[in-house]
Amino acid sequence: MGETIKIAGADGFEFSAYHEPAFTPHKGGVIVLQEIFGIDRHVRADVERWAKMGYEALAPSLFDRREWAFTADHDTEGLQAGLTHARGTPLEQALGDIGACRDFLNKHGGKVHVVGYCYGGSLAWLAAAKVEGLAAASSYYGSMVQANAGLKPLCPVIVHLGRTDPGIPADDVAAALAAANPEVPVYIYEGAGHGFNNESPERYNAEAADLARHRTLELFDKA
Hints:
Blueprint: E1 3-8, E2 14-20, E3 28-33, H1 41-52, E4 55-60, H2 76-88, H3 91-106, E5 111-117, H4 119-130, E6 136-140, E7 157-162, H5 170-180, E8 186-189, H6 206-222
Parallel strand pairs: 3-4, 3-5, 5-6, 6-7, 7-8
Antiparallel strand pairs: 1-2, 2-4
Helix pairs in contact: 3-4
């Protein structure tokens, strides 16, 4: 059963994180990075899925310094609130919190991986290049990946994109990564849009979500 815990960041601030131990024999850890809507039921469900697959899972609440335990509905108002918090959260601060989560999971043994969605997908790509000690990273539909395609990952990374995502040109992202980091697999899911792993009815694409999760699990298990 998941629970909310507190973890001290590099700046001494204690942020909250949703945590669930591995259900099956412990394989290692997974840091689950949120969408802009905070640690909502979709993030908690993803934490539970990773725990069931043998990974101790931890989802940091990355906006706590701005608004404690922020969550928002997936509507226009919630989108604007989430974007405001994301834009107001320094990237280095978020990466520092990811490092603190790595340290927490390291105490329990096994390698530590990171998976992120939307805002978290961008952070997963950035963390792969800037946070030492991660074994592998899986980035889902991060809007900042293309602009940061030239960063050199410190660990194996895979990138997932939806073909019909109106805000992220999948082919352009794939081309930028192919030019700068040709060893990074980029998977484009036909018929899937932004947020296809999120189980809200307007975004969820079960086929794409299942395949992307299979690929991510395979990456983590081999790393």
